[in-house]
Design a protein that fits this description.
- It is built from 11 helices and 10 strands.
- By secondary structure, it is α/β, with parallel strands linked by helices.
- The chain has 2 domains: about 160 residues, Bordetella uptake gene, domain 1 (D-Maltodextrin-Binding Protein, domain 2, 3-Layer(aba) Sandwich), CATH 3.40.190.150; about 120 residues, Periplasmic binding protein-like II (D-Maltodextrin-Binding Protein, domain 2, 3-Layer(aba) Sandwich).
- Strand 1, helix 2 and strand 2 form a beta-alpha-beta unit.
- Helix 2 crosses helix 9 and helix 6 crosses helix 11.
- The N terminus is likely disordered.
Length: about 325
């Protein structure tokens, strides 16, 4: 009888011990959040300095410094179409002091076999912006619209070259057009926006996606012409450039930029960061800067961002499957 009482008492103590451990673990996370941040935060941008992702995150960092009352430093770690910098954060300490700027390329790289990790190998924090592109070509090219490009591509399959960073959203863009218009491009790989644009301006490649603001600047300098816009509606910055849909191509493509943390970062810290990023998104200064960049502020807190990423990944997988780009 004593033996059973002893075993029962031991089990009860074990259960209580586990409960206490759970409570202590939760308390530890809450305590971390209460003292967070007490040192500088680093945002890793997995692309070269000077691109849209870099510019947007430097503005986010400036706003966060005021909100969180700490230094927020942007670190550029380029390479592998965003994979190298992402891997660095994948293995970072999950204390909220190392964050990663991401966009759709994380899922794109995984689905096309460029990397072995995806959105949910990190802790999503918040979506911040969505940016649509214009399809650009050299001023001397024979086309004045995407409709003309499609007609040419149907007659000459695989002849028209399209600059893209392999494993990034810039590769998804031509893939969506190919699927919608039932044509084939010759997709040529360039690592990063700057190199892609240099190739278009230099007439080394026929087509390439360019941000609205960069497109406007190139247009004013007669360095390229814009054939179509990848948004649902025309851009206010480039109102004379018709959407792909207007030209009979049922395709919409955006670069959706947000922030994530290493896996298992405490929920309380994620919540604190998400709330702070919500303040950034509501900042008049930030909104004005995004308007100037032709970028839409599209803030979503953590739960909504997770749902957004789940749908984004599914839609991307379907599109890549149709274009035969999905890794088997």
């Amino acid at each position: 009888m004593k033996k059973f009482i002893g075993v029962g008492l031991f089990c009860l103590m074990a259960v209580l011990g586990l409960t206490a451990c759970g409570a202590d673990g939760q308390s530890e996370g809450d305590a971390q959040a209460e003292n967070y941040p007490n040192k500088s935060i680093q945002i890793v941008v997995p692309w070269d300095a000077g691109g849209d992702t870099d510019a947007i995150n430097r503005l986010i960092a400036q706003e966060l410094e005021n909100i969180l009352d700490t230094d927020v430093v942007v670190k550029n770690v380029a390479g592998g179409s965003g994979v190298v910098g992402a891997q660095q954060v994948l293995n970072a300490k999950n204390d909220g002091y190392t964050l990663l700027s991401i966009h759709d390329s994380v899922a794109m790289s995984q689905l096309t076999g460029q990397s072995d990790f995806g959105y949910f190998d990190f802790e999503p924090i918040s979506l911040m912006t969505s940016t649509y592109d214009a399809v650009a070509t050299h001023p001397d090219s024979p086309w004045d619209s995407m409709k003309e490009v499609v007609e040419d591509a149907k007659e000459n399959p695989g002849k028209i070259s399209y600059a893209a960073s392999i494993g990034s959203t810039s590769q998804l863009e031509p893939a969506l057009i190919e699927t919608a218009a039932d044509i084939d491009f010759n997709i040529v790989g360039y690592d990063g926006t700057a190199k892609r644009m240099k190739a278009v301006v230099g007439n080394d490649v026929d087509l390439g996606g360019v941000s609205v603001i960069a497109g406007k600047d190139y247009l004013e300098n007669d360095q390229m012409k814009l054939l179509g816009y990848t948004g649902e509606e025309r851009s206010e910055v480039l109102p004379d450039v018709p959407t792909l849909k207007e030209q009979g191509i049922d395709a919409v493509s955006a670069t959706n930029r947000g922030l994530v943390a290493p896996k298992d970062t405490p929920d309380a810290i994620i919540q604190k960061l998400s709330d702070a990023l919500g303040e950034v998104a509501n900042s008049e200064t930030f909104q004005t800067k995004m308007d100037e960049m032709g970028t839409k502020v599209n803030y979503k807190p953590t739960k909504e961002y997770v749902e957004f990423l789940e749908k984004n990944e599914k839609d991307m997988k379907d599109s890549l499957e149709k274009s035969n780009l999905l890794e088997e």
